[in-house]
Write a structure and sequence with these properties.
With about 240 residues, the chain is an alpha/beta fold. The chain contains 7 helices and 6 strands, in the order ααβααβαβαββαβ. The chain is globular, with a radius of gyration of 17 Å. One zinc ion (ZN) binds next to loops. The site of one zinc ion (ZN) has 8 residues, from α2.
Length: about 240
């Protein structure tokens, strides 16, 4: 969005810090106190977790970057992003994500950026998918095109946060499918975006589908990571 539009929308919707909800100037995305307070994590570039979870195996993607822990202020910010506001959280975290993708050599000329799809029903009231929003920000900063016509999601799939790790894997298999456009991934490196990684079953299944359509490599780009619960699940996130 252009600066002028940002400015106009700020008159209508005053700008707020996504992490503490205080008012901030229209041309900033986070307040000074939160900026110094948000701790970025360094993840394993294979599984996307700061405490490596590669031992759980079975991940179909070739690499994954996350930049912050899904906890405290970050958790609140991601929840507000899911609900169709809190765009500033993505604007604050995405530049770091973009840098890390470049550092790892995950973003190459010719790569395409896509997002974990949502069903129409589950889309936010504002009609957007937060993962697509992240993908669009990355597209801008990496200078790579987006393509949201590769993957689809069935509307009958259950909410992932109610399931154990094994059930999540099964549910993810039922939930996602290759759209006709999936062939456009053939021979390409695909960067698959989401707001969060938990067990990785959603991302892994989407990567498997992309590869079955001929994608050469699939890297995941997520804003936050969360740890597995004792059952390998997690109480309040998607997957
Ligand atoms: Zn703040
Ligand atoms: Zn790992």
């Amino acid at each position: 969005m252009s600066k002028a539009l940002d400015w106009i929308s700020d008159l209508l919707f005053p700008n707020r810090c996504p992490f503490c909800d205080c008012f901030i100037p229209w041309n900033t995305v986070v307040c000074e106190s939160c900026r110094s307070d948000i701790v970025f994590t360094d993840c394993c570039p294979k599984c996307g977790h700061s405490e490596c979870e590669c031992r759980y195996g079975d991940l179909e993607f070739d690499g994954c970057i996350s930049v912050a822990e899904y906890a405290g202020k970050c958790r609140e910010a991601i929840l507000s992003l899911k609900h169709g506001y809190g765009f500033n959280a993505a604007k604050f975290l995405t530049p770091r994500l973009s840098e890390k993708l470049k550092e790892q050599g995950f973003a190459q000329t010719g790569s395409i950026i896509t997002a974990v799809p949502m069903t129409y029903k589950r889309k936010n009231p504002t009609g957007y998918n937060q993962s697509e929003y992240i993908a669009k920000l990355l597209s801008k900063s990496l200078g790579l095109p987006t393509d949201f016509g590769l993957l689809g999601k069935r509307s009958s799939s259950p909410a992932q946060h109610e399931l154990s790790a094994a059930e999540r894997r099964e549910a993810a298999k039922q939930a996602y499918f290759a759209k006709k456009g999936c062939k456009r991934a053939e021979g390409k490196t695909v960067i698959l975006c989401d707001d969060i990684i938990t067990t990785g079953s959603t991302l892994s299944e989407c990567a498997r589908i992309l590869k079955s359509c001929g994608a050469a490599t699939v890297y995941c780009a997520v804003l936050t990571e969360t740890k597995r619960g004792p059952e390998g699940g997690n109480e309040n996130v998607r997957a």
